[in-house]
Amino acid sequence: MPAPPDDANSQLATVTAVIDSGDDGVLLEVETEQAYPALNAGRFFMLRRGDDVGPLIPRPFSLFKQRGARLEFLIKVIGAGTHALAEAAVGSEMRLIGPLGNGWPSLVPDKHLVMLAGGIGSAPFYLAIKQLLAEGLSAGSMTLIYGAATRGMLYDLAAFEELGVRVLPTTDDGSLGFRGHVIGCLEEEWQAERIPRDCQLQACGPEPMLIAAERLAAVNELPAWLSLESYMGCGVGICNGCVVPTREDGPLSAWPNAKCCVEGPVFDSRAISLAH
Ligand SMILES: Cc1cc2nc3c(=O)[nH]c(=O)nc-3n(C[C@H](O)[C@H](O)[C@H](O)COP(=O)(O)OP(=O)(O)OC[C@H]3O[C@@H](n4cnc5c(N)ncnc54)[C@H](O)[C@@H]3O)c2cc1C
Ligand code: FES
């Protein structure tokens, strides 16, 4: 049975900064008592306030940035849990369980990488790009297509642009960049031969975007990985709150379901069945 990762633990951290980001987000920075080693991009932590204000069930968040014992999370405020986190005071305690999940897998060599980010789904890509650049992948061999409903939901866009890779913002309302969604932008880039058609995809964002990415990958026979933002209860494989339907003929041995928290959150697009 899939189990939580060996390096996961539960510890109290101190909130060191809470900074507004975009129209409805915050950048939450915490400092942990024990530093974690450099963590793979795409992994996540379960967070809740140490003073028990807000829901007792922690909420999952991708690791956005890491500097030693300082961890940053990019959080879109939508409900009780994220409101409580956004209102945490500097100096207060935060309970962290993690690092959890698998993170992004190794890339297929010599194929351009297209990262498709939808809104707050951009969070796991910052560290991914940094790590790929540090491993020697050239900035020209990857493109981030970062979409949202409107420009105010392109959280910390400047930080992504500063990484030096090509970043293509898209907005549904045309307030910045390409007007439309990330898939439309990729298709336009293919048409203009600015991105090779024979590329590989990584995607994180709302489910309709992931379903569209899954279809695009299937039709064009592209390697693709999807990072899911499923509902989670425990984050460690106990509650079954995060099950994802799998394909019987897919590359994952788990069938008919996988647990997103311990077998994901990143899945090969051929392994899961989102459009159910
Ligand atoms: C692995 C993983 C990584 C994530 N990383 C991030 C991140 O980096 N930043 C970030 O802001 N969020 C991230 N999320 C999503 C985040 O966990 C949820 O937004 C959060 O749990 C909402 O908690 P809440 O108490 O504020 O909302 P709730 O009160 O629980 O819900 C408020 C409303 O939002 C809806 N909702 C809640 N969670 C989700 C969801 N996962 N998908 C769709 N609708 C939902 C509910 O149905 C409800 O309508 C991640 C999720 C996963 C599984
Ligand atoms: S969140 Fe509990 S099993 Fe995955």
| Termini separation | 25 Å
Which architecture of the largest domain would the CATH scheme give at its second level?
3-Layer(aba) Sandwich
According to CATH, what is the class of the largest domain?
A: Alpha Beta
CATH topology of the largest domain: Rossmann fold
Instruction: Please mark out the parts with pLDDT under 50 across 5 or more consecutive residues, or reply none.
Output: none
How many domains? The number is 2
What general form does the structure show?
Answer: globular
Class from helix and strand fractions: alpha/beta
Q: Write down the secondary-structure element order.
A: EEEEEEHEEHEHEEHEHEEEHE
Largest sheet: 7 strands, antiparallel
Q: Which compounds are bound in this model?
A: flavin-adenine dinucleotide, FE2/S2 (inorganic) cluster
CATH superfamily of the largest domain: Nucleotide-binding domain of ferredoxin-NADP reductase (FNR) module
Question: Beta-sheet strand percentage?
Answer: 25-35%
Q: How are the strands ordered across the major sheet?
A: 4-3-7-1-2-6-5
Determine the fraction of residues in helical runs and give it as a percent range.
Answer: 10-25%
Mean pLDDT: 96
Overall radius of gyration: 18 Å
Helix count? Answer: 6
Strand count: 16
